[in-house]
Amino acid sequence: MMERFKDREHLFRMGALFLGALALFMVLRAVFVPKGFGTYGHYREGALKDMASLPLHYAGRHACEECHSDIADARKGSKHEKVACEACHGPLAVHAADPDKLKPTKPDAVKLCPVCHTENVAKPKGFPQVDPKEHGEGKPCGACHKPHHPEIA
Amino acid sequence: MESILYGVQGFMYPNEVELQWSILIVLYPFITGLVAGAFILASLERVFNVEAVKPTYRLALLTALSFMLVAPLPLQLHLGHPERSLEMYLTPHTTSAMAMFGFVYLWYLMAVLVLEIWLDYRKDIVLAARATTGWTHKLYRAMALWSDNISERSLEIDDKVGRFITIVGIPSAFLLHGYVGFIFGSIKANPWWSTPLMPIVFLFSAIVSGIVLVMLMYMVVSWVRRTEIDMNCLDTIARYFMYAFIIDFSLEMLDLIHRIYEADESFKSLNFMVHTKLYFSQVILQIIMGTVVPILLLALVQLVNMSAAARKGLYVLSGVLAMVGIFAMRWNVVIGGQLFSKSLLGYTTYKMAFATREGLLPSLLLLALPFVILYVLVRLLPPWPAKPEANEA
Amino acid sequence: MTTDRRDFLRSAGALIVLTGAASLAWEKVLAGEPEKAPNYEMSDHWWAMLIDIEKCIGCGNCVRADKAENNVPEEFFRTWVERYHLPPADLLHPKEEVLPEVDSGKEGGAGGFPERYKAGDGSKNFFVPKMCNQCSHSPCTQVCPVGATFESPDGAVLIDRSYCLGCRYCVQACPYGCRYIDPRSNTVDKCTLCYHRITKGLTTACCENCPTGARTLGDLKNPKDPIHEFLRTHKVQVLKPQMATGSKTYYNGLDGSVR
Fold first, then answer.
1. Which CATH number fits domain C40-75+131-252: 3.50.7.10, 3.40.50.300, 3.30.70.20, 2.40.50.140?
2. What is the overall mean pLDDT for chain C?
3. Residues 1-40 (B) with a CB less than 8 A from some CB of C
4. Does the predicted interface ipTM exceed a cut of 0.95?
5. What is the pTM of this model?
6. C neighbours by CB contacts (3+ pairs under 8 Å)
């Protein structure tokens, strides 16, 4: 019996090597697989928290209307009512968190209004669009249109 | 922005303009293909008792191992975070062909190649351990796993186990390279890649490339050692080269004909791409020069009586052309699959750099590296007996 | 005019509810605790996006807002706008396939769309905003070898940047071209549906800044969400439906020529 084992012994050594490698693999798994991996699916649970805790740059219109309710009221019933404040005024989460830290500047209407209202054949037909060079006889947009209530009475 | 848009025709989704996978990812299936093919040639002798190719058995195995060791390197160079690559083994996503391939690779390297080479060479390793001193002695002892038993019975057992491993190794080799084909073939988003034929086409072209590699290696090594080439062996290998190539060509043509006939929504865009951006690499290099010409040359050898020298010349020529053609095939799949937009409305250009991490220079070095490793392996584990007159016939 | 009043009441009601939720969450933000607000339960939500082609004016606000909100690298896009131009019918060669001419303006739409077509030439023109389709059977998460990209329990497809290898397999697998490699981190990146905003009761940056309501976030698990009624009463499609990705980005008024 020992004779038979003797001639197979080298195979058992190789087998032991493989088992050793497997054991090493198990150790590596225990050490390196991140905590919380697999809780909700094949991913690290902490990734959800990482994604959810990224910083905000836009405050969202409700934050604006909390303080600027007068402007919110003024916009009621106007064509621009559904346009968010930051769509024209830019990202203002910093201002909403601490109004004195960042004071927003008034956007330049001449640059801003054409972004939406320059005529383009791809724009939906019912959307108000003009040729900025010809419309208004060269006057700036603000001369006739108030941005928060753009309809001309 | 303008510099990125240079080379774009038509419309590409903005994020598609730059190619994702570079020449490194062309190299990778080429190298694993050589491994699978060389191994399958070696197993012809072991399992199917094709005695004629026996002179190349050990050389084929060592060649396969050299290339197998280099195979992960282009991938590591390509990854955005190579230091995280262990994650593929620690938390493999079982639905990802790429992740499961990591295990197929490991299985093939350890349980097939290394085991088979070890079992075939064990007697020589133990003898070498007995005949050397110092660090070389220590190395050989370690390679023998500190066993000294080379009794006839133990060698008989080795042979039986080795045969079993070779039998397991053949489907493993098929799996190894078929899987690489599946990595591409399973991507429904890419119509150039998505076909069930992809793993099979990859596999057969891999078999051809492996056979050619061993054939050319055998001729080069014999020339360097100034030993006579066994023409029966060479002619047999060349016949297998031809058979495998005919199957491979039929499969590639089937894919092409199928696309042309069905002419689905992707056809117009892909057809345009093949006729313009991919014309040289696909039609000229891969199909005509890389497949049709070698097959015709090999057929010529079968049909016309010619001298050994003439046959050798034609084998070298068709072998080199075939290698170029098969590399071109990998190029056309990987790069070609990224030259057109998934909107099917535009095309971009592959801008290959030279001396960057994913450029031409590292690719050339990676192609040369297996030969360096092979040289070391051949010195450590000579595929032929030391005495020149005992040349295996 | 009853429709206007009903609309107004509906949006006022939504405002009250959302303000309540948002202000609670906002307190957490103001207090310097930017993690998920305590009242957010993933199992209460199944996020989707509604894009109304008939309302998109190609202003590019969404692209610019997204870049500002999410630190998107300059050369790549989490969202972009495409302009489609279908030439008028060629009466002399009716059998020839008519392919649309598509472009994404300057900087994916962020820089606007310089006019290049003439009005009244018989062509069909429109804008199509594109983004990650937040697929519920996403091919990108299927192919990720390590689990660095995943579908959250509330239906957002997200990326774990600390785990991503940068292998780019997911970029290849996405049929919509919405993924890219961020060259600053060498990991993959894409639209996250502003997960850091929606988990606090805010809407996404693109929806917030869309002036015409062409983009609206929807919560398919909320029975009161207007998306349900919209989907029921409009002809809505997803991009590349034959790929069966389970896309949750629904397009109203999507033309057959859109790729």
1. 3.30.70.20
2. 89
3. 1, 4, 11-16, 20-21
4. no
5. 0.90
6. A, B
